[in-house]
Design goal:
With 363 residues, the protein is an alpha+beta fold. It folds into 2 domains: 201 residues, Fructose-1,6-Bisphosphatase, subunit A, domain 1 (Fructose-1,6-Bisphosphatase, Chain A, domain 1, 2-Layer Sandwich); 134 residues, D-Maltodextrin-Binding Protein, domain 2. The protein has an 8-stranded mixed β-sheet with strand order 4-3-5-6-7-8-9-10, sandwiched between helices. It has a 5-stranded mixed β-sheet with strand order 12-11-13-15-14, with helices on both faces. Strands 1-2 form a two-stranded antiparallel sheet. α3 packs antiparallel against α4 and α5 packs across α8. The longest helix is centred in the first third of the chain and has 20 residues. It is globular, with a radius of gyration of 21 Å. Bound molecules: 6-O-phosphono-alpha-D-fructofuranose (P6P). 6-O-phosphono-alpha-D-fructofuranose binds next to loops.
Length: 363
């Protein structure tokens, strides 16, 4: 849980704390921490600045979705075979444009594009040396009904052997443990950017009156256990036996272990994840009949959120293996995902373990 209680005192004339400048901006925060990166040239700080800028642009368009022509689908299907929403295409365009203009990124992997996109470096320090993997807008089918959605990003260093002359898209296929940063933007009742560089998790709230992300949730720590579980129970009968047993266990009445747990499922991963991060809980998208490898993508959903969850004291696994240690072989590969409060993830794993043991013991 965040350890910051806000004193939303005003100057008495309606001037907010933010306007009074007592909050730290995202850029001030990044610059202050810039020296955490060896040989820091400021390139990483500029990369985060570029991501923050794109997030503000997407937020601006999102807040006017009903007034500009961004409802509904483009009529295209993306590489996942999913109907691409207009806001998906807009968000993809805004983030790739900001990263291309910023010059610190030289390879982008996006849910909205079949292959990783090499960018020719334009920054004054020479070519970009970072890879950014993106889900530009997760849960976008919710936009037309005004439910919150999010952007997820994951940042890697470019491998030394990478050649700009013959860019290798597979340079993006690094295990989650190699991430140098990860974050998300949740376009909810307020717009927040939450990220980690491996030194804890910090949350910034956008103050639209000054167009700045301000540090509002320093050093986020997720509770070890919580009462919330997020899963599409509609697929209950297609879940493996151990998962059904875990869900039944969560819903048994036992005041001593704070059960029954409560189900909260928005159908928007970033929103479910963010709520569970602050309040404690577990989000699960397991293998189902319709999604035998799970639905969430390893490289730009499970890995970045797994990095954040672990940095906040939580856990992320595919039910058996730590997400960050999975070896990727395709940019858009999917994975089952159990993520959130550590004790809840471990208990889910133990239920799944028991049934796989029983299954293997059967003659
Ligand atoms: P279902 C959105 O499409 C998404 O990727 C996640 O944001 C969300 O949690 C999940 O899919 C919802 O999927 O199958 O429950 O509708």
């Amino acid at each position: 849980m965040t350890n910051q209680s806000h004193s939303w005192s005003h100057a008495g004339d309606g001037t907010s704390e933010a306007e009074l400048g007592s909050f730290k901006t995202l850029e001030q925060f990044i610059l202050e921490r810039q020296d955490q990166f060896s040989h820091s040239t400021g390139a990483f700080s500029r990369l985060l600045r570029d991501i923050g800028l794109a997030a503000k642009t997407v937020n601006r368009d999102m807040r006017r979705a009903g007034l500009i022509d961004v409802y509904g689908s483009t009529g295209e299907t993306n590489v996942q075979g999913e109907v691409q929403q207009k806001m998906d295409a807009l968000a993809h365009r805004e983030f790739t444009r900001a990263l291309r203009r910023g010059g610190e990124c030289c390879l982008i992997g996006s849910e909205e594009h079949a292959e990783a996109i090499p960018l020719s470096g334009t920054s004054e320090e020479g070519d970009g040396k970072y890879i950014v993997l993106l889900d530009p807008l997760d849960g976008s089918s919710n936009i037309d009904v005004n439910v919150s959605v999010g952007t997820i990003f994951s940042i890697y260093r470019l491998p030394d052997e990478y050649s700009k002359d013959e860019p290798d898209p597979d340079a993006a296929l690094q295990p989650g443990t190699q991430q140098v940063a990860a974050g998300y933007v949740v376009y909810g009742s307020s717009t927040m950017l939450v990220y980690t560089t491996g030194n804890g998790v910090n949350g910034f709230t956008l103050d639209p009156s000054i167009g700045e992300f301000l540090l509002s949730h320093p050093d986020i720590q997720t509770p070890t256990r919580g009462r919330l579980f997020s899963i599409n129970s509609g697929y209950y009968h297609s879940f493996e036996e151990g998962l059904r047993e875990y869900l039944d266990w969560l819903q048994e009445r036992d005041p001593e272990t704070n059960r029954p747990a409560k189900t909260r499922y928005i159908g928007s991963f970033v929103s479910d994840f963010h709520r569970n991060l602050l309040k404690g809980g577990i989000y699960m998208y397991p293998a189902t009949e319709g999604s035998p490898d799970g639905k969430l993508r390893l490289m730009y959903e499970a890995n970045p959120m797994g990095f954040i969850a672990e940095q906040a004291g939580g856990a992320a696994s595919d039910g058996h293996t730590r997400i960050l240690e999975k070896t990727p072989d395709k940019l858009h590969q999917r994975t089952p995902l159990f993520i959130g409060s550590e004790e809840m993830v471990r208990r889910a794993e133990s239920f799944l373990e028991e049934t796989s043991d029983r299954a293997s013991a059967r003659p």
